[in-house]
């Protein structure tokens, strides 16, 4: 409007190198906010799984519920900014909510708050769960609410003569989004791997979530610091509300005139003619045509967003050191490289070959790439499953024997049949009450009751008459760590580094140690020796300490492998990340460009809202499958998702085949002509809108992917 234009002209805008100084605050603000969001999200599912001790399905469900909420709240933020507070106040208020959420989330990860007995595990999980859920809701409201406002607010800072600077700003703006994502997904997993705590040292979730919280506070402070330099426009009203009212009126009017006595109309939206402008109705028809194509799209996001949940959990069952850090950054790195390659090389090459690779065909191919990524993930999972132990069912028990007696023994277990037990392997029983006999002189016999669904080791000490059962781990150690314990065959108490004192013939509880070389010092009075062992990922060991441990300087300590280490390398995940990112580039970027080319310029916010809803619905589908599907094998779930996406891509390709491409500007011009608008006015308005659209097209590529 003229009033708005005058207000902007009257405002003094300080410039530096031809750019408004205010945009430097906005760019720094966006970098810090994106670092905060992606950094928190990078370790979120691991926090659920290993701090709150939720199972894989619940951790996946809550993760995707949070992501879905993050994709729904931008619609609310856009309505608040356009209809009530304006962009500046909306960003300020919701950033405060956002920062409070991040701080709340960081506090919820401090285990010492409820760890009264100082064993390293929270005593009141309800407190931590409630605090973290509150934090996530506030974060979702904040990040979603400001998402549609910041880029548009940055664009408001430029005058009409600064179109070149505006394009550069958007390029830098979206570069900051990808840079924030890349750095945070690289740094926060490293922060989590540190150990910290007041009373006990545990993995440092407070640091991993605290740094993003600090970055969000910095983001807010930086944005407020530039307050006096911003161009602030008043709310202009939100087009989505007008569209919803028009559609609602058309449906209500059609229902009122459902009798056959009323003549049919060409399109059901024509029932809004009595109240609404024909141009608005024509624009809504074009939008609905595009939104109809959105119906199958949530299935793509169902697969895509699992790289932050299922694929992260898959990586914890694999081996790898530096690669584990690299994997978390594969997606943003590939995005930055694949987008220009696709845009400048692949697509033009296909076009030169004479192939009609239309936007809808690109989107279909993008879906198929995502499906192939999940087939790749399923193949990797099958290889992982081959290396997993054969754990007992809920009605079975497993037992193995560890002999620290001075001579070799034959161990026989009854009833049913006599079994000669090999101490290296577990034997499975379908009954729990057993009798163990040793071929000593005299024969020693003892009855035991096994744990149903559990694994146990029969420890035979230097005095076989006191042989006993020790419960073993019955799942892979968490986060790729190694579970170790010691059996004391020495004749006196021993002190072992980082472990409690161990009595003769006793066995320590399992202790988790990280990958790499670990040193253990064994002491008894003035005697001591050092035992070293290099560990891989996800193994379990029982170390047997002989009576001669000090005389041979710990060289005689032997190990029993309770569970083999992870042997499938994380590098095998790279193909699935490459395929899913290729699919994202072909699907997401192309999808938004197609949408904007097939609908009026003033309806972009409606299409953006529809696009975000497909993201949200896709994450809700994951939530439902994770909670209700309960497939026995993870590879089967991956193949299920891949099959569903292939089926959906076939449906989408059929819909695309029958879709007719339109020129929205031509349709609008025709409607204006019917309404009696002057040709000069039409032409001027069309040119202005085309110029504005051309500016925005220049920054669609990489930029829409992360925003």
TrEMBL record:
Main localization category: membrane
Ranges annotated as spanning the membrane: 65-85, 91-113, 125-146, 166-192, 204-226, 286-304, 324-342, 363-382, 606-626, 638-662
SUPFAM superfamilies: MFS general substrate transporter
Mode of membrane association: Multi-pass membrane protein
GO CC annotation terms, alphabetical: apical plasma membrane
InterPro entries reported for this sequence: MFS_trans_sf (IPR036259), POT_fam (IPR000109), PTR2_symporter_CS (IPR018456)
Record bears the keyword Cell inner membrane: no
Residue stretches of biased makeup (Basic and acidic residues): 684-700
This protein's UniProt keywords: Cell membrane, Glycoprotein, Membrane, Peptide transport, Protein transport, Symport, Transmembrane, Transmembrane helix, Transport
Any one GO BP annotation for this protein: oligopeptide transport
Record-linked Pfam families: PTR2 (PF00854)
Subcellular location: Apical cell membrane; Cell membrane; Membrane
Source superkingdom: Eukaryota
Region of interest called Disordered, as start-end residue ranges on this chain: 673-707
PROSITE patterns in alphabetical order: PTR2_1, PTR2_2
Reaction(s) this enzyme catalyzes, per UniProt: L-lysyl-glycine(out) + H(+)(out) = L-lysyl-glycine(in) + H(+)(in); a dipeptide(out) + H(+)(out) = a dipeptide(in) + H(+)(in); L-aspartyl-glycine(out) + 2 H(+)(out) = L-aspartyl-glycine(in) + 2 H(+)(in); L-phenylalanyl-L-leucine(out) + H(+)(out) = L-phenylalanyl-L-leucine(in) + H(+)(in)
GO molecular function: symporter activity
Described function: Electrogenic proton-coupled amino-acid transporter that transports oligopeptides of 2 to 4 amino acids with a preference for dipeptides. Transports neutral and monovalently charged peptides with a proton to peptide stoichiometry of 1:1 or 2:1. Primarily responsible for the absorption of dietary di- and tripeptides from the small intestinal lumen. Mediates transepithelial transport of muramyl and N-formylated bacterial dipeptides contributing to recognition of pathogenic bacteria by the mucosal immune system.
Record-stated family: Belongs to the major facilitator superfamily. Proton-dependent oligopeptide transporter (POT/PTR) (TC 2.A.17) family.
PANTHER family hit by this protein: OLIGOPEPTIDE TRANSPORTER-RELATED (PTHR11654)
Protein name, per record: Solute carrier family 15 member 1
Species: Cyprinus carpio
Organism lineage string: Eukaryota, Metazoa, Chordata, Craniata, Vertebrata
